[in-house]
Amino acid sequence: MAGSPQLTSALILGSIRYGDTSRIVRLLTRDFGMVSAIAKGALRPKSRFGASLQLLSEGQAHLLPSRSGDLHTLTAFDMTGWHGGLAADLERFRTASALAELATRFVPPMANPELFDQVLDAVGLIEAVPADALPVVGLRALWQLIAELGLGPSLDVCARDGVPVPHGAALFSLGDGGLLCPSCARGAGGSQLPIEAREALEALLTPGGDLPLLDERHGAAHRRLLVRWVGHHLGDGSLPALEAWQQAG
Ligand SMILES: [Zn+2]
User: Fold this and answer.
1) What is the pTM of this model?
2) CATH number of 6-82
């Protein structure tokens, strides 16, 4: 981020107290990726920030870039939207929290407008979809964030040698990074994905495509697969919100 004041669309994904009167917020921004910024005086009763710095507030962030580090200064936040409906519904809140946790941990401080728009759309959907569509909307939101980070699984071609994987059931190898062709699958470790599970995973990873129908048992299996994938490919360490999302439902 350059030295002069910057204005960018942003979504607040985290907020903690800092000292007696300030807050440090984690912002997913359209122009600078994931950044941290201090909102000085945000906890004072007559703060100019008012109630704008809440989880999942959407707006225009006025940022004063740090000269020396990664903690910038938030001088103002013009709130344009807040996904308040989420907080009232435990399942929606869990899903949005898992998405916020993944973004906060893994999105770098680099411009990625597609990723920003995708997360914003996903939060809107998580808030608004009918309850029975929520599990699959959550799976898609999380998988698409992972894919947008360049860390999605290989599904069309063999993760080991790039040979097309014939249609049908196939071996999914976490370590290799996706499906294996029949010859690589011989003797390899992994879990066999039945054709329906493979098609569902492909649908989840196809932006704008039809959402797959998953019953409770298959939904749970997809959540476990996603969490194992994150642990293996994005890094370990605790991801409490993602764990809570996996265990729910
Ligand atoms: Zn192969």
Assistant:
1) 0.94
2) 2.40.50.140
